Amino acid sequence: MPIRIQADLPAIEVLEAENIFVMTYDRAAGQDIRPLKIALLNLMPTKTETETQLLRLLGNTPLQVDVELLHPASHVSKNTSSSYLQKYYKTFDQVKGQRFDGLIITGAPVEKLPFEEVDYWTEMCRIMDWTRTNVYSTLYICWGAQAGLYYHYGIEKHPLHEKLSGIYNHQVLNPYHPLMRGFDDNYFAPHSRYTTVYLEDVKAHRELLPLAVSDIAGLHIVAEKGGRRIFVTGHAEYDRDTLAKEYFRDVNRGLEPKIPYNYFPGGDPAKTPAFTWRSNAHLLVSNWLNYYVYQQVPYDFIGEEHA
């Protein structure tokens, strides 16, 4: 089934070329279907790339999904024009009176800063507090996951001695958990971050369930009991070449980055990386949509706007 987005969003051309069913609002208005209403708070500097990556995953399920793109009003984007944001995105204040079946909060390149020093942290706190009543299930990604664990449970992030970048093997801790259904015992996923969250800190909270870990990359997936909050410390949504783009960007900046782990064939940046995490990424998002949004949200959860 399709994702519903604005008719001229640049991501449409890419998604349709991949045979992902995209439906415009005008066409969807003629159907008598209650679609899932999903908001995407995009904190990444590469807005178009990130929205395309996540829309691709949201569009590969049997469910019809109505997507609302959000950006923080308290941050001035250096990489995305204000005209693009005004045309395709809304701010929290514009949607705070609505309810959403699900919300995705992306990562952001601000890991080295204390949470309170991020220029949109106050707004982030307002949004995360709002999710308690206006969002049925929230999926937090990378820095977003660290921010959610810190805000809701007081779990700190910790600096790594060097950037964690690459494709890492993970072990499923609970194969019978709905979020992990269909996963192999071991699977690959990308990470790209400078900080981490300790497994023992998560285990100290009885309401949190660690679901997958890596011997090298550490904790990967955590779920709150009941599934109202899901935390993923990596970037399952990344394209084949996203880590390569980050690596060559840092090379051009003179940062002398390490070659991403287990990514380029033979460790040669001139070679095209194998796409070894795509199926796991689709499975993760479809499980979240199915088991923790579609099957659990009350039918009348989406109603009239309210204060």
Automatic annotation (TrEMBL):
<feature type="binding site">
    <location>
        <position position="249"/>
    </location>
    <ligand>
        <name>substrate</name>
    </ligand>
</feature>
<comment type="similarity">
    <text>Belongs to the MetA family.</text>
</comment>
<protein>
    <recommendedName>
        <fullName>Homoserine O-acetyltransferase</fullName>
        <ecNumber>2.3.1.31</ecNumber>
    </recommendedName>
</protein>
<keyword id="KW-0028">Amino-acid biosynthesis</keyword>
<feature type="active site">
    <location>
        <position position="237"/>
    </location>
</feature>
<keyword id="KW-0012">Acyltransferase</keyword>
<comment type="pathway">
    <text>Amino-acid biosynthesis; L-methionine biosynthesis via de novo pathway; O-acetyl-L-homoserine from L-homoserine: step 1/1.</text>
</comment>
<feature type="site" description="Important for acyl-CoA specificity">
    <location>
        <position position="111"/>
    </location>
</feature>
<keyword id="KW-0486">Methionine biosynthesis</keyword>
<dbReference type="Pfam" id="PF04204">
    <property type="entry name" value="HTS"/>
</dbReference>
<dbReference type="InterPro" id="IPR033752">
    <property type="entry name" value="MetA_family"/>
</dbReference>
<feature type="active site" description="Proton acceptor">
    <location>
        <position position="235"/>
    </location>
</feature>
<dbReference type="GO" id="GO:0005737">
    <property type="term" value="C:cytoplasm"/>
</dbReference>
<feature type="binding site">
    <location>
        <position position="192"/>
    </location>
    <ligand>
        <name>substrate</name>
    </ligand>
</feature>
<feature type="site" description="Important for substrate specificity">
    <location>
        <position position="192"/>
    </location>
</feature>
<dbReference type="InterPro" id="IPR029062">
    <property type="entry name" value="Class_I_gatase-like"/>
</dbReference>
<feature type="binding site">
    <location>
        <position position="163"/>
    </location>
    <ligand>
        <name>substrate</name>
    </ligand>
</feature>
<dbReference type="GO" id="GO:0004414">
    <property type="term" value="F:homoserine O-acetyltransferase activity"/>
</dbReference>
<keyword id="KW-0963">Cytoplasm</keyword>
<dbReference type="GO" id="GO:0019281">
    <property type="term" value="P:L-methionine biosynthetic process from homoserine via O-succinyl-L-homoserine and cystathionine"/>
</dbReference>
<dbReference type="InterPro" id="IPR005697">
    <property type="entry name" value="HST_MetA"/>
</dbReference>
<keyword id="KW-0808">Transferase</keyword>
<dbReference type="GO" id="GO:0008899">
    <property type="term" value="F:homoserine O-succinyltransferase activity"/>
</dbReference>
<comment type="function">
    <text>Transfers an acetyl group from acetyl-CoA to L-homoserine, forming acetyl-L-homoserine.</text>
</comment>
<feature type="active site" description="Acyl-thioester intermediate">
    <location>
        <position position="142"/>
    </location>
</feature>
